[in-house]
Amino acid sequence: MPHTDLPYPDRSLTAAERDWHCHALSRINADYQRSADTHLLKLQLPCFQGSTLYLKDESIHPSGSLKHRLARSLFLFGLANGNIKQNTTIVEASSGNTAISEAYFAQLLGLPFIAVIPKKTAPEKIKKIEFYGGRTHKVDSHHIYEEATKLARDLDGHYMDQFTYAERATDWRGSNNIAERLFEQMQNEPRPILDWVVMSAGTGGTSATIGRYIRYRHDLNKHTRLCVVDPDHSVYADYFSTQDPKLKNSKASHIEGIGQPRPQPSFVTSVIDTVLKIPDAASIATIHWLESILDRKVGGSTGTNVYGALQYIAQATKQNKPINVATVICDPGSRYLDTFYNTDWLREQHIDIAPYLEQLRSFQNTGQLNPISS
Asked: Are residues 177 and 218 in the same domain?
C-alpha cells in the first residue's frame, strides 16, 4: 500500500471522468469504423501515354476533407494526454478545413469548439464550422496562433495546435493512416509501385506521415519518392532549401489550407525528396480543367497537387518512360464557389487563369506542358 502521508497530489480520474473518457474514445472509434477508408480514383488519359495518375479522394470523409484524419488523431492525442475532458472548450487556429473537422468531432463528443480563423476565410467554410456547432473568431492571418493560445488560456480550454502536433499525433507506421491505405490500395493494380507521391503541405503532418511511411517500408524506399508542392506566398519551398527557421512572408496564400507564411514545427523536411513551387493561377486553372474530367468541383489545394503531379507525368511522356503518380483530392469545390469558381473574385485578386487553362488543354491534346509565355 502507498504511504498516505506523502505530500503529492492524487490526480487520478474520478469514476465519472473515466466513464466520460471511455465514452469519448468509443464515439471516435465508432466514427473511425464507419469512415476508415476513402476511394482511390485512377486517371489514364490518352495524353498520359501509359502513365497513371491516382487520386486519393479524401473529400468523402464525413467532415468533407483530408483534415478528418488529422482531427481524429488530434482528439485522440488530446484525450490520451489528459488535455481533453468533459466540458473542455476546444480551440484551434485554422484556415478552415481543420476547423470544420475538429468542429465535427467536438460535436460528436458534446464539447464547445472555437475556431480562430483568418478574416478572409471562405464563407462556405465558416458555414460548415457553424453547421457542426462551432463558433468562429476572425483575426488577421498572421495573428491566429497567438490569439488561439490566448483564447484557450482565458477559457481554461485546450488549444489543439495542429501546426505543432500534426506530425506526432498520427502514427506514421500504420494504424490505417493515409499512407498505409494508399499503398495497400495500390497492391492489386497492374503496376503497384508508385514512382512519386505529390502532396501539398498545410501543417506538414500529412507529408511527414507519407514520407516517414515510405522510409519505414524498405520495399517502398527503393522506388517511391515524395514531392511537396508549395503555393505562392508560402515559405515551405524556400525553407526546404535553406533550413532557415526565421523565414517569413507577409502575404497570405490564396490557396486556403496549404502554404504558410513561416515554417511550422510539423513540416519535416528530412523525409521529403524535393519540392515544387506552384503558381496560384496554375492551381486554380487546374481545378477548372479537372472539372471537365471528373465531372465535379474540387478545392484549390487539389489543383496544386494535380498540377505538380502533371509535371512528372509530362516529363515521363517526353522521356517515353511511363510512371505512376499519386496525389490527394483534399476537399470539395463547393466550399470555394465564392472564390476559386467566381470570376469576379479572380479579377479582384488579379489572378489570370487563362494561360494555364490553355496550357492544360494543350497538354490534354499533346501530352506536353508547354511553358507559359511571360
From this structure: yes
Residues 6+ apart with CB under 8 A from 1: none
Instruction: Indicate whether 229 and 353 sit together in one domain.
Output: yes
Question: Which residue type sits at 38?
Answer: T
Alpha-carbon dihedral 201, 203, 205, 206, rounded to 10 degrees: -30
The SS3 assignment for 10 reads coil
Q: How far apart are CA 335 and CA 187, in angstroms?
A: 33
Number of folded domains that form the chain = 2
pTM for the full predicted model: 0.89
**What digits encode the pLDDT tens for the residues 47-69?**
999 999 999 999 999 999 999 99
Give Cα separations from 166 to 201, 345, 368 (angstroms): 11, 32, 37
- CB-based contact 187:193 (threshold 8 Å): no
Helix (H, G, I), strand (E, B) or coil at 114: strand
- Cβ atoms 254, 231 nearer than 8 A: yes
Taken in order 16, 18, 22, 25, the sign of the CA dihedral is: positive
